[in-house]
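Archive transcription. Copying these from loose printouts into the bound notebook so they stop getting lost. Printout 1 of 2:
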Amino acid sequence: MYKYRVSSMGRMYLYYAESDDEGLDGRYSHIHKEFEIYYMMDGEVEIILEGKKFFIVSDSLLLIPSNCFHQWEYPPGRIHRRISIHFLPEFLDKLERYYFLSEFTEPVHFLNGSLHKLNSFIQTIAECEVYEETIQKIAAKARLSSLLSQIHFLKSNNSVKPVVLDERIRQVIVYIGEHLQEELSLDILADKFAINKNHLNVLFHKVIGTPIMKYVTTKRLGFAQQEILSGTRFNEAAYNAGFKDYTTFFRAYKSFYGYPPSEALISGIDFSDTKS
């Protein structure tokens, strides 16, 4: 039996799940615009984030950056209980965005979360559900910032390294991230890494869970959004991210985020009804 509940706090969402059978056949690849903090209270799951495999067991925490393709697989017939915190970058203030978004560009995984009091930080955020709406958002934001600060403090010495599934694909991902402003096509990437383009596309899709050019577009959108939230003009942000015309960027941005670039800067907007 699978029980699932969502609690919204404006730009932050708490997802609760408890199950003895996840009900998913194989792996399912997806991506969302929010950051995700995934805490496994009891159970286990295998999560693949852009070619890196993480083994999540009871009392494990995994921070997943925004715009990060990920897949999961739960052992069938095994009980698990988990809570996930999703938050949009806009939930943080400008200084916090500048700091945390630049620090958390890669997944961060911890075992023995209670040893580092990470479970206590999660619990204090969950407690905000019962607060009156205005106080709830203030408290949730403050407590999320505390959790992010603790994750940052611990990550250098206590985080767990993932398993890299394919070194060639890892190199392709690094190259894409470092050359977003340049022209990137399947032909260019295949030539760069001396791999047949059809084989590269199939292999990339198998490891990452999405076609290579969809991955490129998604990464460009994420980069552009960070530029916009940092105060860069929309046209300039689009160009810096590798989009050659603003119309293409605007349509892609609105399709993915659910709102136009200008609304990312509106402090009072509630994104709880946008698709994730």
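Printout 2 of 2:
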Amino acid sequence: MSLIELIDENVVKVPLAASTKNDVISELLDLLVDGGKVRNRDRALDALLERESQGSTGLESGIAVPHAKTDAVDSLVVAIGVSPAGIDFQALDGQPSRLFFLMLAPPDQSGPHIEALAEIARLARSQAFIRALIASGSAKDVIDLLSE
């Protein structure tokens, strides 16, 4: 299953209102909750914050991938957020993160979770593509770029 199959405009936020790491996680989680993709917000949030406490999911090149396994979802779910100004996510390269992929997966399903992480890693290799996503003006723009 490709990343674009998991995403619609209801789970993409451009731009994010958040200005802190925890606010980004909450804002993206709320998109999934509002879309009926998460059964228990508190359990999902606890899982995300617990995973983040083990080490930042801020990668390089302005990308962060907060993720966790939780029984609050039935299958892999993804939300995407863009913060053109950037947010300190304690990224590996020390730079602000601008593009966020929040993922939740059930504890007993690792395949789709790993595939989605690999797809994000492939996307991250193209700086031009990442810049285009960060420059997106709307959720539709993000969807269109990911659909290409």
